[in-house]
Amino acid sequence: MTFCCTGRAGVRPSPWPTTASRAGGWGLFNIVEGLLGHQILGIHHVHGGPHQLWWDMGFLILGVILLVGGYLLQRSGQPFDPGATDTPSTAAGLLHYRWSTA
Q1: Which percentage of the chain shows pLDDT scores above 90?
Q2: Buried b / exposed e along 9-19 (16+ C-beta atoms within 10 A)
């Protein structure tokens, strides 16, 4: 299975691009759904009651955090090179290196 993804048998692809895409997509969904479903159309709210606006704003803020975090995680990733033998100097690169050489 890993051969079809990386071109080499036994080499695992990096999980960071997938993790970044999931976080960014989840954040984008939260923003769109929060604005349309909660604010514009008023179909439902995160938590109904006297403080529902604060709950809805928290939902939107979480969406922004996930979107920005996913974007930053995607940008911080290094290209995957299964033939590289040098060790990385950053913490994110070290995680990438350990995952790809395990």
Answers
A1: 36
A2: eebbebebeee
Closest CA to 39 of 51, 57, 25: 57
11 Cβ contact partners less than 8 Å away, ≥ 6 residues apart:
2, 82, 100
Residue 28 has a CB neighbour count (10 Å cut-off) of: 15
The residue ranking higher by pLDDT, 58 or 90, is 58
The pLDDT of residue 1 is: 38
pTM equals 0.63
Find how far residue 62's CA is from the centre of its chain.
13
d(CA 55, CA 94): 38
